[in-house]
Amino acid sequence: MQAPPPHPESDAVPNPLLPHKGRGAVSRLAHRFERDQRSAFDGGWGDVQAVDEDAAPPPATQVIFEDARSAISANDSPDIAFDYSVNPYRGCEHGCIYCFARPTHSYLGLSPGLDFETRIIAKRNIAAVLARELAAPRYRPSVINIGSATDCYQPLERQLRLTRALIEVLAQARHPFSIVTKSSGIERDLDLLAPLAAQGLVAVYVTITTLDAGLARRLEPRAAAPHRRLRTLRTLAEAGVPVGVSVAPQIPFVNEDMEQVLAAARAAGAMSAFYTVLRLPWELSELFQQWLQVHVPDRAERVMARVRDLRGGRDYDSAWGQRMHGQGLWADLLRQRFERACRRLGLNRQRIALDVGRFRPAALGGQAELFE
Question: What is the CATH number for 244?
Fold first, then answer.
């Protein structure tokens, strides 16, 4: 992997609590393995300067190429609906401030804040590694999810096409898979997805956090707008691809239009739905609280108080059975709202089942046609 370039130096200490155009994080928060912690402090001498958002260019995206040693990650968590996952990218330019994967950038010596959304690791050999692993004699097929950690259709996919290469491998082997995305870029690959859907080999889940476009721009600045995601749902459904909607995460007093999102998604063709509540592991808690102070300071304390109600008094609880939906009164009320809306709309009446029995690993060693 290429070494990440150094941080840009500046004589002025920027105020860390200002928004950056097109970015979710408001600071390059130190990761948890750093020995030195630095923060801006105004001692009254005028040495802390605010960033002029009109004059200063937004932080640029940098691509760091990596040769992956493995492609498939196994999952043994009972509260996740798939056994295997593949992620072609580390970090995500969508910049969703609530992303639970942000702290994984710390293992790279990078900030889970701005670095997570501006320094993207691209696994350039991921398709070849996946093909090798699927063809291994010891491999036993189970549904693979693409994009479980970071969005596999983030903006860089337009040029790098790593996700499309993964789909081509899975299609050749007739291996079932699912995709979770916030991007309309998935429509590019309908020529692959529609024939696979006809064979029961693919399902797609589109995340729609809110229908409020202004809020979505602040929460997830480089993801597709809510109305565009609804159009993507409709496009996929009309092409015969089974689609569901993720109304995740639910953030108390921030995105409170879950029923409206579910209704709009159902009208667009969604067959199923799921949700999670906000998860704040490791550095993400501080990052999210910075975002609250910048974007909704009047509600910041109230939001965090409710988050802690959902987590037994803590910012986060990683225990299985609680980390996805929380616990206590407010978690129960949220669950009741979701289930009532799904019943009324006819969501989740049928499980989207994918066909593992079509798997043909031998096709990866020859020149088999993509579809028969």
Answer: 3.20.20.70
